[in-house]
From TrEMBL:
PROSITE patterns linked to this entry: HTH_CROC1
Lineage: Bacteria, Pseudomonadati, Pseudomonadota, Betaproteobacteria, Burkholderiales
Organism of origin: Ottowia oryzae
Protein name: Transcriptional regulator
PANTHER family hit by this protein: BLL4672 PROTEIN-RELATED, BLL5781 PROTEIN
HTH cro/C1-type domain span: 24-78
CDD domains (alphabetical): HTH_XRE
GO molecular function terms attached to this record: DNA binding
Lineage top rank: taxon: Bacteria
UniProt cross-references to Pfam families, sorted A to Z: HTH_31 (PF13560), MLTR_LBD (PF17765)
């Protein structure tokens, strides 16, 4: 479906057209796509795409959202594109504790509760913990100093800070290298200033600066999934791998930025230790 075939050149207010054009060009370059590829996938003419990026024409809201679909622009930034083009935002941004969010909160709470006795967390766009199950809350309370739990726990700080889980992570070099790669990709794909600031912060940690760029891998074949191996003073050694899931088809900025990170035992010994810890608690 061609949303804007052979559109005539319609001048737009300079400040609006230039602003949205620069934003779209930035997202296109971030995705490493050509004007031609984006235009064809979005159903607009390459000529119109060029006019939009250079500020000679302002896209309609429908064309703007089609371009955002092709460029996989997050909902938060889609609102920014609409505002830059002089249109009203389309996507709501409610607080997670808003009354109409209660069904989502209840569903996430059920998900986390069903995952006990294995740790589970709900995270926001900056990987701050907004909900945790009993196992996850117990793990954080036992292993993280108060400074890393206030005002909230951030996964990257908790795992990489030298006073956090890093001090009890047996395979810290491999686990940290994997986490840093994920963070680097998230910053590059999202263009999020908060994530970029978080990346700069963790890269300044002395234990992270000490890591070699060429992290030595253990001998033997690589594991099917890279586990986080923790050596805990009471529970003993835990080997955990993680999964991350998101909400399907969100129409709200807050919901689109939530994810659930669920940890699973990588071996039966870990599963038994976690079940025993839950039973004793």
């Amino acid at each position: 479906m061609n949303l804007a075939p052979n559109l005539p050149h319609v001048p737009a207010p300079a400040h609006e057209a230039q602003a949205v054009g620069a934003l779209l060009r930035g997202w296109r370059q971030r995705r490493r796509l050509s004007q031609m590829a984006v235009a064809l996938d979005a159903g607009v003419s390459p000529r119109h795409m060029s006019f939009v990026e250079t500020g000679r024409s302002r896209p309609s809201p429908e064309v703007l959202m089609a371009l955002a679909d092709v460029l996989a622009v997050p909902l938060r930034e889609r609102n920014a594109l609409l505002l830059a083009a002089g249109y009203a935002p389309r996507f709501s941004q409610r607080a997670l504790d808003a009354p109409d969010m209660r069904p989502v909160q209840a569903a996430l709470a059920r998900l986390l509760a069903a995952h006990d006795p294995y740790p589970g967390f709900v995270l926001d766009r900056a990987w701050n913990v907004v909900q945790a199950n009993t196992a996850g809350a117990g793990l954080m309370a036992a292993l993280l100093p108060a400074a890393l739990r206030a005002p909230t726990v951030n996964v990257y700080r908790a795992c990489l800070h030298p006073d956090g889980l890093a001090r009890v992570t047996v395979n810290f070099a491999q686990w940290a290298s994997d986490m840093l790669g994920n963070l680097r990709r998230a910053v590059a794909q999202s263009g999020d200033d908060d994530l970029a600031a978080l990346e700069r912060e963790v890269l300044a940690y002395p234990n992270i600066r000490a890591l070699s760029d060429d992290v030595r891998q253990p001998a033997g074949p690589p594991p099917l999934l890279l586990p986080c191996v923790l050596d805990l003073p009471v529970a003993g050694r835990l080997s955990l791998f993680t999964t991350v899931c998101t909400l399907g088809a969100p129409g709200d900025v807050t919901l689109s930025e939530l994810c659930a990170e669920l940890f699973y035992p990588a071996d039966e010994a870990t599963a038994e230790r976690l079940r025993a810890a839950a039973a004793s608690a």
